[in-house]
Amino acid sequence: MRDRAEAQAPEASLRAAAVRGDLEAFEQLVRRYERAVFSLALRLTGDVEDARDAAQGVFLRMHRKLHTVDPKRSLSPWLYTVTLNVCRGIGRSRIRSRLVPMEEFVQLAAVDPTPGPERQLSAREAEFQLRAGLQQLPERERAALLLREVEELSTAEVAKLLGSSETTVRSQISSARMKLRKFFAKHAGGKR
Amino acid sequence: MNCQWQDRIALYAGGDLLESESAEVERHLIECPDCAQLADWMAADRERLQSRPPELAEIDFDAMRRELRGRIVRGRRIRRWAPVAAIAAALLVAVSIPSRTGHRMVRPVDPASQVAPVPVAGGLAKGPRPVPAVRKTDGRKRPSVLRSNVEMRLTTNDPNVVIILLPVTTENPNE
User: How many structural domains is chain B composed of?
Assistant: First the structure.
């Protein structure tokens, strides 16, 4: 956990120091974003090890390219873009190969003593099911949904990051929500 | 269920509709229990998406940062020494090329040193393969440490192909 001084250090000065080669300042920046980057990578890739590798890759790239980021603009959108690219680069085959097969999840659901719509999933089961559902989505729909829901960006911001129009992004987000709902309904006994 | 409403409910659940569109969806939800149920489920899905992964509490971010720092420091070392290594390599090449070409390659070849052509490809030459003669091409006394080195000039059936084996010439300052 970062201490109060670190939390209050202005990002602009940290960025300037990091660009000058100050490793401590760079690490403070990493602390600020590591959880968000890791979470996004985890939901994008569906795998903890892939997410860890992706986070390392994102911050290594940040270290090399920080001087190219406009200091007047927030670092978040740039980091999200890099995270999307790094996760894409990790390789779909590797990502898919690490996904837990759906049969395993179905088995989990079967042993629950109170199956059905009222069944309360544990946090881990819910997360597991969520990742499996996200992996069913087309890559761009998944990215659009996660940026909108998890990172709480506006559709305009998501569109800019993904290089799409707002209309396209709204359509992708709507489609992703529907597919995810159908997936949950099918695999968790939830109503639709 | 009407598919047109599904899409709009999906956007409504995330607050992605204009105010007027949201009001229209809300009026529909009052009249349609199925769509109201869908909207509730989508709101729950959204909460699930916004929750942090449980693994977040288990990840050792300090270790990740240490690894990151190590990789950055190693990268810096490589970048720092790369120009020095490049200059050293260039100097090595600059020193070794004249010693190979300046004294040996440009020297006129004594016709007597020519040896019988050596066939380079099996089946082209008939009869026993001649053994190439080996001789020194200069008469200088060589430093004792280099006397075991052999310099050879071999010619082949192809006049454009000459094989020259040269020793590295390092003069012994003590001699």
Answer: 3
Instruction: Mark yes or no for CB contact A184/B68 under 8 Å.
Output: no
Last residue of a domain, one of B89, B105, B121: B105
Shared domain check, B152 and B90: no
What pLDDT is attached to residue B83?
74
pLDDT at res. B157 = 75
Which domain does B171 fall in, by range?
Answer: 107-175
- Yes or no, beta carbons of A181 and B46 under 8 Å apart: no
Does A111 reside within a domain? no
Q: Are residues A88 and A128 in the same domain?
A: no
* Residue in B with minimal Cα distance to A25: B69
A33 contacts A11 by C-beta, under 8 angstroms: no
Residue pair A31/B65 in contact (Cβ under 8 Å)? The answer is yes
ipTM of model: 0.74
- CB contacts of B51 in chain A (<8 Å) are 123, 126-127
Average pLDDT, chain A: 82
Q: Which residues of A touch B (CB under 8 A)?
A: 23, 26-27, 30-31, 34-35, 38-39, 42-43, 48, 52, 55-56, 59-60, 63, 123-124, 126-127, 130, 145-146, 148-150, 152, 155, 170, 173-175, 177-178, 180-181, 184-185, 190-192
Segment holding B92, helix H or strand E: helix B61-100
Look at A30 and B68 and tell me if their CB atoms are within 8 Å: yes
With a CB cutoff of 8 Å and minimum separation 6, the contacts of B84 are none
Range of the domain at A59: 9-94
Q: Is the Cβ–Cβ distance between A129 and A109 less than 8 Å?
A: no
Asked if the model's pLDDT at residue A40 lies above 70, the reply is yes
Look at residue B148 and tell me whether its pLDDT is greater than 80.
no
Angle at A53 between CA A25 and CA A135, to 5 degrees: 125
In a mutational test of the A interface, the residue from B21, B62, B72, B80 whose CB has the highest number of chain A CBs within 10 Å is B72
pTM above 0.90, yes or no: no
